[in-house]
């Protein structure tokens, strides 16, 4: 098994368990974490003994979202063209994960926000702990998310979540169909691993073709077209919100001069 700096990877019989492991940064999805995550998915896909993947977070949080710390030695990304390159690569990475032959199960403990929420929605199945909190708080600094959410909860609820930036609980996520099941925190991994175990008892070919069949139905309903449009709108939005005439420009000035904590305080 590969060695990873920002996550843990272990096999439990025919199930690969991937744990986001940067609790001191609230498991924030920085570039290095995403690189490790993709490598772990690729390792699981290449391993003939693995038939399902469970993803969770270390500590009491799945992930608070994107790492808001500006990368050292690199200029900020501001133009539409630059953001298109960033967002297109992110889209391609998540598409690769969705197209895996092995089903992925997200076991969400604690916060799952912003960019982490996008990754979570890219998994085949989501199980939430009662402590789980889902949402897109980046609305508060003028940002945007991709367009998977309406396929899960409908257009009105998606607009409510994305236009308020409010978080919802694991129980509410279960009620509106965002997650498959909400369970007590101390049962989360047990339930996720039992589900992955039941899946892994079946033929890998049967698992693969049934998974791809269902994904193809989603594509026929407009899934891929929606995500492609999301990449464009995401890139335009990120470019515009950094321009000096916008209300959010002052927030990014605070982030640059005073750091992430001051940025989040001002944003709220």
Question: For the residues shown, what is the average pLDDT?
Answer: 88
Binned strand content: 5-15%
Low-confidence runs of at least 5 consecutive residues: none
- CA distance, first residue to last residue: 42 Å
Shape summary: globular
Spatial strand sequence of the major β-sheet? 1-2-3-4-6-9
Q: How many strands, which pairing sense, and closed or not: the largest β-sheet? A: 6 strands, mixed
N to C succession of SSEs: EEHEHEEHEEHHEHEHHHHH
Helical segment tally? 11
The residue fraction in helices comes out at 40-55%
Cα Rg: 18 Å
Backbone structural class:
alpha/beta
DSSP summary, beta strand count? 9
Structure in words:
There is one protein chain. The protein has 268 residues and is an alpha/beta fold. Helices cover 49% and strands 15% of the residues. The chain contains eleven helices and nine strands. The chain has helices at 31-46, 80-98, 115-121, 149-153, 155-164, 170-175, 188-200, 204-220, 223-241, 249-258, 260-267; strands at residues 7-12, 15-20, 52-57, 104-108, 111-113, 125-129, 133-135, 168-169, 181-183. The strands form two sheets. Strands 1-2-3-4-6-9 form a six-stranded mixed β-sheet, sandwiched between helices. Strands 5-7-8 form a three-stranded mixed β-sheet. Helix 2 packs antiparallel against helix 9 (223-241). The longest helix has 19 residues, at 80-98. The protein is globular and about 55 Å long. The chain starts with 6 loop residues before the first strand and ends with a helix.
